Amino acid sequence: MNRFWKLLHMEVSRFWKLYITLFAMTLLMQGGGILYVCNRYMQTVKDKMGPAASTYAQYAEEHGVVTFSDILSEAQLYFLAPIALCIGGMGLYVFLIWYREWMGKNMFIYRLLMLPTERRHLYVAKLSAILLFVIGLVAFQLLILPLESALFTSVIDQALRGSTESVTSIIQNHAFLQILVPRTFTEFVMYYGGGALFVIVMFTAILLERSYRLKGIAAGVIYVGAAVLLMIAPMLIMNRDMNDYLYPNEIFIIELTIAILIGMMSLAISFFLMNKKLSV
Amino acid sequence: MIEFKSVRKKYGRKKVLQDVSFTAQKGNITCLIGINGVGKSTVLKAIMGLTPIDGGSILIDGMPVGKHIYEHVAYIPDHISMPPNMTVGASMQFMKDFYASWNEARAEEMLTFFKLKRSDRISELSKGNTAKLNLLHGLSLDVEYVLMDEPFSGIDAFSREQITEVFTSKLVEDRGVIITTHEINDIEHLIDEVVLLDNGFVKSQFNCEDMRMQEGKSVMDVMREVYIG
């Protein structure tokens, strides 16, 4: 097996337990939250119906039906908290995936840098692992949506439920899920390309720090600042001097070009640092 | 042959290697001697491309340092370079997966010789057993050169004996070995060449046998002359 794939396999294996924990946490918090909100809704319905004991159908006629999207909005905290934790966890892991190699007295970086393979394979394996983990988390979210919808169906009486929603319509009705699952290719490039660019730029900053230590921290901060400035520069110029001068798709192409340039420069700097400057 | 030519290296403002040149031949055990902090480990790391140098050049059989050397040179640092939660068996599998020069039969032989258990986690090994596993990782590679950084540092007498035995066995025979130490007594009888480092320079390089025959001096005698005056 190609050494890159072996490195990628190793990266995935090393994160496996934490990854399962993130899955479990998402499932438990979202599932628990939806169950809680559904039960609370049913209790409210029962309380409002009172001792007169009218039927659920009558209640629905008076107050309207509830959909899974409504429950999702009510359970916003339980739904978004694990996603935020996953994003935060992955954000931290962008750093940990490198720094753990230098941690402790058994520094693994000695062995990794002495592997008889291109050092960029190590970099690409770490980058691919992060991107795979993110895609995996999104896929898991999509997989558990029908399960959560089934929970809703099992708790809320049929008479109180609105028409069954497909996963697509659940996503379309939820502002944050629309970002996780973009509707158009342009949105996909914006959200996921942006995320990948963030990881690539942060990797460069980390490698600058690992290569030049204290001076590297300053270089890393300046590099990240410069990258952010370059990315927002078109917007700043547009707002100040060229209001409404360009069409949105033209702005998108300018941003995409800048992002590709930053990405390529970051990769070139990172590979150079890995080959020539990185120190154990 | 490993050629270290006018190598310079500084950490911050501290010049660790100012103008270090020496050669290490295949089939010889070359010992880098010097007090702590003199740059012995830096020399080995520089050969392995684990730390960049500020000047000079390093050649291994005439070729500069690059990914190709890792199938020809093994480095055994003064600590094991595997994650602590890995088992002995998993660490051997890792080496087998990545190195074409991994010699499984030799690894098994050393595993038995050192009485290590595959199922033990690296974090649970004693200092002596960790050093033995470290040695196993390095010596089970079919390489021409082996670099060892303080292999006897901080380990018990019995482990020391076992490791010394390795030096006189076929495991080291015919290979070029560079070993660093600041305690020469344990290995004086094993080494062929000595490189004395001090203040970023090579103070002296000599062949032990020649020194004994021609000047009647042991390595310790030469060290006294060089370091104490």
Automatic annotation (TrEMBL), chain A:
<keyword id="KW-0472">Membrane</keyword>
<keyword id="KW-0812">Transmembrane</keyword>
<feature type="transmembrane region" description="Helical">
    <location>
        <begin position="251"/>
        <end position="274"/>
    </location>
</feature>
<feature type="transmembrane region" description="Helical">
    <location>
        <begin position="16"/>
        <end position="37"/>
    </location>
</feature>
<feature type="transmembrane region" description="Helical">
    <location>
        <begin position="189"/>
        <end position="208"/>
    </location>
</feature>
<feature type="transmembrane region" description="Helical">
    <location>
        <begin position="120"/>
        <end position="144"/>
    </location>
</feature>
<protein>
    <submittedName>
        <fullName>Uncharacterized protein</fullName>
    </submittedName>
</protein>
<keyword id="KW-1133">Transmembrane helix</keyword>
<feature type="transmembrane region" description="Helical">
    <location>
        <begin position="77"/>
        <end position="99"/>
    </location>
</feature>
<feature type="transmembrane region" description="Helical">
    <location>
        <begin position="220"/>
        <end position="239"/>
    </location>
</feature>
From TrEMBL, chain B:
<keyword id="KW-0813">Transport</keyword>
<keyword id="KW-0067">ATP-binding</keyword>
<keyword id="KW-0547">Nucleotide-binding</keyword>
<dbReference type="InterPro" id="IPR003439">
    <property type="entry name" value="ABC_transporter-like_ATP-bd"/>
</dbReference>
<dbReference type="InterPro" id="IPR051782">
    <property type="entry name" value="ABC_Transporter_VariousFunc"/>
</dbReference>
<feature type="domain" description="ABC transporter">
    <location>
        <begin position="2"/>
        <end position="224"/>
    </location>
</feature>
<dbReference type="InterPro" id="IPR027417">
    <property type="entry name" value="P-loop_NTPase"/>
</dbReference>
<dbReference type="Pfam" id="PF00005">
    <property type="entry name" value="ABC_tran"/>
</dbReference>
<dbReference type="InterPro" id="IPR003593">
    <property type="entry name" value="AAA+_ATPase"/>
</dbReference>
<protein>
    <submittedName>
        <fullName>ABC transporter ATP-binding protein</fullName>
    </submittedName>
</protein>
<dbReference type="GO" id="GO:0016887">
    <property type="term" value="F:ATP hydrolysis activity"/>
</dbReference>
<dbReference type="GO" id="GO:0005524">
    <property type="term" value="F:ATP binding"/>
</dbReference>
